[in-house]
Design a protein that fits this description.
single chain, 9 helices, globular
C-alpha cells in the first residue's frame, strides 16, 4: 500500500525539465527587471522614451489585425524550427537555456518599462500585453522544450542513420499539433489582445 502511495506521489511530481524551464525563465526575468531598473537613467532612457511615444499613439494607429496574426505566427514558427534544429545538436542544453533566459529577460524589461512609466499600474498594463494568448503560448512552449529535450536524448545517442530518419519523421504529428495551437494563440493575440491593449490605453 505504501509503495503504491509513493508511486502515485512520484507520478504527481513536476518533471525535472519543467522545473528547469520555469527556473531559467524566472532567472532571465529577474535579470531583465534589474537591468531595466538600474540602467533606466542612462542606457535605457532613449528606449523608454520611444516606448512611451508608441504607447501614446497606439489608439490612433491603423493596425491591421491580419498583419499582427501573420507576424506572430511567423515569429512562433521560427522559434519552433530553431528549437528543433538545436535539439539534434550537441549544444541543445545551451540553446534552450539561452532561449529561456532571453524570453525571461525580454519580459523583465517590458515589465520594468511599464512600472517606470505608470507605477504599479504598469504591471496591469504588462499583463494586458500577455493576455489571453499567453494562456496558450506558455504551456505550449513548456511542452515543446520538454518534448524536444526528450527527443534530443533519444536522437543524439542514436548512431543508426535510418533510425534517426524515423525519429525525425515521427515528430510531424507533434509539430502539427503544436502549430494548430500556435495558430489559435496568434488569433487570440491579433483579435483579442490588440483590442484589449488599445482599450486599456484609453481608460488609464
Amino acid at each position: 500500500m505504501e509503495q503504491k502511495t509513493k508511486q502515485q506521489m512520484n507520478e504527481k511530481k513536476i518533471p525535472g525539465i519543467v522545473k528547469i524551464i520555469i527556473a531559467l525563465f524566472i532567472a532571465g526575468m529577474v535579470i531583465g527587471i534589474l537591468t531595466g531598473y538600474f540602467m533606466k537613467s542612462s542606457l535605457y532612457s532613449p528606449l523608454i522614451t520611444i516606448y512611451k511615444d508608441i504607447l501614446s499613439r497606439l489608439t490612433s494607429l491603423d493596425i491591421s489585425r491580419s498583419e499582427i496574426f501573420f507576424l506572430s505566427l511567423k515569429r512562433n514558427l521560427k522559434y519552433l524550427v530553431l528549437i528543433y534544429m538545436f535539439a539534434i545538436t550537441n549544444i541543445w542544453n545551451w540553446y534552450y537555456g539561452a532561449f529561456l533566459l532571453y524570453i525571461g529577460f525580454s519580459n523583465g524589461l517590458l515589465l520594468t518599462f511599464n512600472i517606470i512609466l505608470y507605477g504599479m499600474a504598469g504591471s496591469i498594463r504588462y499583463l494586458c500585453y500577455l493576455f489571453p494568448q499567453s494562456l496558450i503560448f506558455i504551456p505550449i512552449y513548456i511542452l515543446i522544450i520538454a518534448h524536444c529535450n526528450s527527443f534530443h536524448k533519444t536522437y543524439y545517442v542514436c548512431t543508426d542513420t535510418a533510425k534517426k530518419g524515423k525519429l525525425l519523421f515521427r515528430q510531424f504529428p507533434f509539430c502539427i499539433f503544436i502549430i494548430l495551437f500556435m495558430i489559435a494563440g496568434c488569433i487570440l493575440e491579433a483579435w483579442l489582445n490588440l483590442p484589449l491593449v488599445i482599450w486599456y490605453s484609453t481608460v488609464q
